[in-house]
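tool=predict chain=A
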Amino acid sequence: MDRTLKIMKIPMLVLACCAATAANAADIVEFTAGTAAKAEEVNSNFDFVIDKIDSLNAVSGSRDREGVADCAADANALRDMVDKGVNKISFSGDCNGPLFPTVWTRLTGIGKDTSSISGFKDADNTYDTVVWNRSSFVEIQDTTIKAGMLNTDTVLVGSEYGSEVRLKNVDVIGPNNPTDNSNCLFARQGSFRLTDVKISACNEAIGLTYSSFAEIREDTQGATVIENNRDWWTVSVSHGSSLRVKGGTFKGNLKTDPDDTDEAIGVQYNSTIRMEGGKVEGLGIKRNSSAQLKGGEVIDILRVQKRSYASLEKAFVMSKSGTAGVDPIIKVYSSELDTNKLATQLDLSKLKARSGSKISIEGTSIANSMTVDDLNLRQASLSLYNQTVTSLAAQVSSGDFELENSELNISGVFVMWGSNGWLGDGSTIRSGSYEGDDANECPRNIYRIGHDDTSSNLITYPVCP
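tool=predict ok
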């Protein structure tokens, strides 16, 4: 809209504009009868009213307003445009935050090395954030978001109250202060969609809480890397929130013993994760939460605890890191774990279940062979369907197991205390030796492990006198 058309609208809007901007009356030049009006003062008044019309148009969403911000010339150029409701902005240079968009906004840098948005503080600006989105939509691409002058307890990018933030080809760099409580990205009833995003130098890279959502992917191999700078979850999903992982690498604090690893992703308090791709260095599911792992890779450890549930499906794999001294670990406490026809069979150093947990492993045929060095069930149950499990040692205490068209092959000792088993549909259990509460009974109480006519108990029991 050119200047003439805008001026034609002034009579229709002057009352609304004047009422809305009464607090800014000092910006209007008042004229006295009989006094000559200077051209620059008249034009200034028109410019003031035009700015207010533009602001009203932006808020009402009647049209896009485009602009170019040169932050090399004016570090506040981008912030000033966002404050005025300009909603499609290309920018260059190092731009000062904070930005508080109130309308649908798209910000496009000219490159991660030549444009950025940085944390900034002065006497008039004391906010500990770089971009904060509330109840709106913001898309930022091709730039770097960095802490700048913010060095403690900061949130670089926030999303809350139904808002959505999309980042594409963006680096997010925190204050690198290991002792603070910084979040690079934080959502409270908000959402993120990240594509080819690298996050680093915050104590928590991404925090999702109170019914928030994030989807993370990468279009270019290696372009999405999420990491933090202390011994804690890199991504935290809590209080009814959801995370969908389609790609990227999520860095955890790996240890020689995977059981000591701080997982890259932690999901808790009635939250969910759906994984279809990517690499996650340790995954923890806790406190009434659930995981659907349809693809991607979890490295070193998977924990499912406190009334939670995990489903391992089809293309999902577990692998060993270069740091770990042993194969991966799965630990299930007071929870349930299902594996469903995995294309790549699990190869674990430990599979542990405790306190009422249930583990179900289903393959496509008895030829599917999973290996585990130490199979340990205590007050837990194990069900095998169309699956072979080979273990160096196994222990079942106050629990039970069931095999259907399956094999449980234990090359070493099988320890069984206060437990029961069942073999059906052509199943077999065998072990190199046996220890248990019936080991010295003669005749032996073989009914602790029952079987149908098609199945076999080939455990090597101690020889009776």
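Residues 1-23, 58-62 have pLDDT under 50 and may be disordered. The helical segments are 3-8, 10-20, 39-60, 77-83.
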